[in-house]
Amino acid sequence: MRKKREEDRDNHERWMISYSDFITLLFAFFVVMYATSSVNEGKYRTFGVSLSDAFLNKTSAPPPKSSRLLPPRPVPDSGKSLLAEQRREKMQGIAQNILSVMSPLVNAGKVRVMQSNIGVTVEINASLLFKSGEADLEPKSVKALQAVAQVLKNDNHDIKVMGYTDDTPISTPSFPSNWELSSARASSVVRLFATNGIDPARMVVEGYAENHPVDSNDTAAGRARNRRVTVMILAAAPVQETDIPVSKQ
């Protein structure tokens, strides 16, 4: 009878072995999971998501084989943006003022005022400024150019004055070719600007002869359009020149 009781006691405590084994396996599982998460948190997270999807019967696209971090988007410089906007508004104001003082000529098709990222361009038909084959300003054009000078004299932007002709050849003692004629016409405009208060250091003269036409030279209207003087007020601020040291070899 005593022997039977001892056997019952042994059978009653046998579950402790299975429980100990389960706890040991569970501890080992968490140790492995912790080690995995410490080595590669990204892979562990991917594994966790995949495992969760599997239990929930979800289908998802496989993770990419590799990934690259995109470079951070540059944060716009508010100071530069504000400066650019101020410059744009200033150039727009210059264009509006020139349009105002030359509105009769603009309406007559003799003058065009355009604004772009480069600056403000004032295209003046040469027939308004000069007689055919000459570079002396006509008296009727002086007043209009003086009004433009009043708009620009207190500004600090550089000014480029460019002369153009049509493709009709010229050969006179004063102008052996259209190169001399186009340059002389642009120089006449610059000289008037200088005598009306614009700093000569801000201005430059360029003559292009019959090159860079804006219309066809096959018609009288096209040739008339190509004979022009263009005044360009450059949007970029003037650059201060500095000496660059040259190393001796």
Write up this protein.
- The longest helix has 25 residues, at 15-39.
- Helix 2 packs across helix 3 and helix 7 crosses helix 8.
- The chain has two domains: 2-55; 80-234, 60s Ribosomal Protein L30, Chain: A, CATH 3.30.1330.
- A five-stranded mixed β-sheet has the order 1-2-5-3-4.
- The chain is an alpha+beta fold.
- The model is unreliable at 63-70 and 239-244 (pLDDT under 50).
- It is built from nine helices and five strands.
- Helix 8 (178-195) links the parallel strand 3 (159-164) and strand 4.
Which helices and strands, and how do they pair?
Blueprint: H1 2-12, H2 15-39, H3 41-55, H4 78-101, H5 103-107, E1 111-115, E2 119-125, H6 126-129, H7 139-152, E3 159-164, H8 178-195, E4 203-207, H9 220-226, E5 228-234
Parallel strand pairs: 3-4
Antiparallel strand pairs: 1-2, 2-5, 3-5
